[in-house]
Amino acid sequence: KIDPEFRFKICGVREEIRNTVSGRVLVLTAMDPRGQQNRFLFSASTGSCTFLPLQEDWSRCGASAFTFEILETLKKRPEQTDRAYREDLEVLAEAWKERLTAEGALLYNKK
């Protein structure tokens, strides 16, 4: 669930879409968490996946097999440029990919 106050903050997030059947995970980052969540909800409601790495499993398992969750937020510092902030989000995503892989999760993300 996304905090409605997010729209008033400059805040990026580390999210995941998890296949509850296979356990595979797609690690995402976004500067617009509500937009990313809406994209997932649209995909689930229409049955057509807009996340390319998931399409094969989405077709095989169905939309109900996938969950969307925001797991970590990263606030933009006032002096930080958008580019530097995006780079920090990518570092955060890479750290989560390593952590999930170490825990035995299979990722949809390509290295």
Sheet/helix structural class: alpha+beta
The portion of residues forming beta strands comes to: 15-25%
Rg from alpha-carbon coordinates: 14 Å
Helical run tally:
3
* Spans of at least 5 consecutive residues with low confidence: 1-11
- First-last Cα distance: 28 Å
Query: Based on CA inertia axes, which overall geometry fits?
Result: globular
Would you report the number of β strands? 3
- Which oligomeric form is depicted? single chain
Helix content: 25-40%
Overall mean confidence score, pLDDT: 83
Q: Output the helix-strand order.
A: EEHHEH
- Main sheet: strands, sense, barrel: 3 strands, antiparallel
Within the largest sheet, what's the order of strands? Answer: 2-1-3
Characteristic terms for this protein:
3 helices; globular; 111 residues; alpha+beta; 3-stranded antiparallel β-sheet
Structural features, described:
By secondary structure, the chain is α+β, with helices and mostly antiparallel strands. 38% of the residues lie in helices and 23% in strands. A 3-stranded antiparallel beta sheet has the order 2-1-3, sandwiched between helices. A hairpin with a 5-residue loop joins strand 1 and strand 2. The protein is globular, with a radius of gyration of 14 Å. The N terminus is likely disordered.
